[in-house]
């Protein structure tokens, strides 16, 4: 699979200076954690789940979560488990010899309890080859260790590499008096199981619930100061660029239908006029996508990569804004040239900024990692061009 692999090769050549790399579910963890992109959630109760997975893969989705937790009712768990086993078994038959043969997304199951992990892997049998891992809800040290122990046991029993994606959404992370202790304990836990933790996911909806909050479509998670402070502390402790950190993904965007608008649209007009796609701009505004685009940009600025998504229309905006611009790529390459190891300051090739080699080195390394999986846009290509090309026809 590859990002933008669903569009024609000749169009990719027009869009990209460096095309996104091909990867598989067996690629190294550093590649997969950066490549998650827009992780699309789907309730495990969907009667045509197998078809949904194939359909979304054909539209550019590269990671999906099949949810047995908050997306379904408490009374539906047993039926959802059975449906999940049946649907993944059918998907295995369709996929052929390996998941790569059908170019399926990375598939994860969001469970409620640790015992579900070995039980589902055993019930899936050969179909467990489709799984890349499990999403672990409301993760703390106390709750998380049993989940991670169950995952490692299931991995050993199945012979299949399985990753964990803990969700940071506990009130203990939100409350000021317990936040530091909880974050330190979470770090100890995920550090111990580092080889199994692919990424950490932020459960901002649960954070908001603790205070009876819900952000409007005109606002981002960063406009809710109590939520923004948690994101900052999570990145501070768990997202460092010194080798101790993990990939932390952006929070879910809840809106996908037209709402009455209170504030002026946040989406600038000029890039759309330059790309002659004003109609696309109006569509995005009408469907509250301008807020989503702003939040994706703020995710990146605050050290997050990838995003939880609950609607297919959110996928391509996340991926289009994840592509490395030609200017970013040029700066990163200049900073990381072998002759620059001693440090120093240089003017960017675009002659519009200072690149200070030592302070910007970690940024440059992360930028080139993102460039590997999302590609580098050609010099005359902006995110609107990428978005328009990636949307279903």
From TrEMBL:
GO MF assignments: catalytic activity; magnesium ion binding
Named cofactor requirement(s): Mg(2+)
Record-level GO BP terms: oxaloacetate metabolic process
Pfam family, one: C-C_Bond_Lyase
InterPro entries, alphabetized: C-C_Bond_Lyase-like (IPR039480), Pyrv/PenolPyrv_kinase-like_dom (IPR015813), Pyrv_kinase-like_dom_sf (IPR040442)
Record's keyword annotation contains Metal-binding: yes
Keyword list, A-Z: Magnesium, Metal-binding
PANTHER family according to UniProt: CITRATE LYASE SUBUNIT BETA, LYASE BETA SUBUNIT, PUTATIVE (AFU_ORTHOLOGUE AFUA_4G13030)-RELATED
Protein name: ATP/GTP-binding protein
């Amino acid at each position: 699979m590859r990002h933008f692999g669903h569009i024609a090769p000749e169009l990719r050549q027009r869009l990209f200076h460096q095309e996104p790399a091909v990867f598989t579910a067996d690629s190294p963890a550093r590649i997969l954690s950066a490549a998650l992109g827009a992780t699309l959630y789907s309730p495990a109760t969907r009667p045509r789940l197998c078809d949904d997975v194939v359909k979304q893969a054909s539209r550019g989705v590269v990671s999906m979560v099949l949810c047995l937790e908050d997306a379904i009712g408490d009374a539906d768990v047993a039926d959802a488990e059975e449906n999940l086993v049946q649907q993944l078994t059918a998907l295995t038959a369709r996929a052929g010899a390996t998941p790569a043969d059908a170019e399926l997304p990375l598939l994860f199951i969001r469970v409620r309890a640790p015992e579900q992990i070995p039980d589902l892997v055993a019930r899936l049998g050969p179909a467990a080859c489709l799984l890349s891992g499990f999403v672990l809800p409301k993760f703390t040290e106390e709750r998380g260790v049993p989940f991670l122990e169950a995952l490692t046991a299931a991995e050993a029993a199945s012979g299949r590499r399985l990753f964990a994606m803990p969700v940071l959404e506990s009130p203990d992370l939100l409350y000021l008096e317990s936040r530091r202790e909880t974050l330190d304990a979470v770090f100890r836990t995920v550090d111990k199981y580092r080889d199994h933790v692919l990424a950490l996911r932020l459960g901002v909806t649960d954070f908001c619930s603790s205070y009876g909050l819900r952000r409007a479509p005109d606002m981002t998670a960063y406009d809710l100061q109590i939520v923004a402070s948690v994101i900052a502390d999570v990145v501070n402790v768990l997202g460092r660029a010194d080798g101790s950190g993990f990939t932390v993904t952006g929070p879910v965007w809840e809106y996908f239908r037209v709402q009455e608008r209170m504030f002026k649209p946040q989406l600038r007009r000029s890039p759309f006029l330059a790309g002659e796609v004003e109609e696309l701009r109006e569509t995005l505004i009408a469907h509250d996508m301008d807020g989503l685009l702003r939040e994706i940009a703020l995710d990146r600025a605050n050290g997050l990569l990838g995003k939880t998504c609950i609607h297919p229309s959110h996928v391509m905006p996340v991926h289009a804004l994840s592509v490395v611009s030609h200017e970013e790529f040029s700066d990163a390459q200049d900073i990381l040239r072998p002759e620059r190891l001693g440090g120093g300051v240089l003017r960017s090739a675009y002659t519009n900024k200072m690149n200070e080699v030592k302070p910007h080195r970690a940024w440059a390394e992360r930028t080139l990692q993102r460039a590997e999986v999302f590609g580098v846009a050609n010099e005359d290509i902006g995110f609107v061009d990428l978005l328009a090309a990636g949307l279903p026809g």
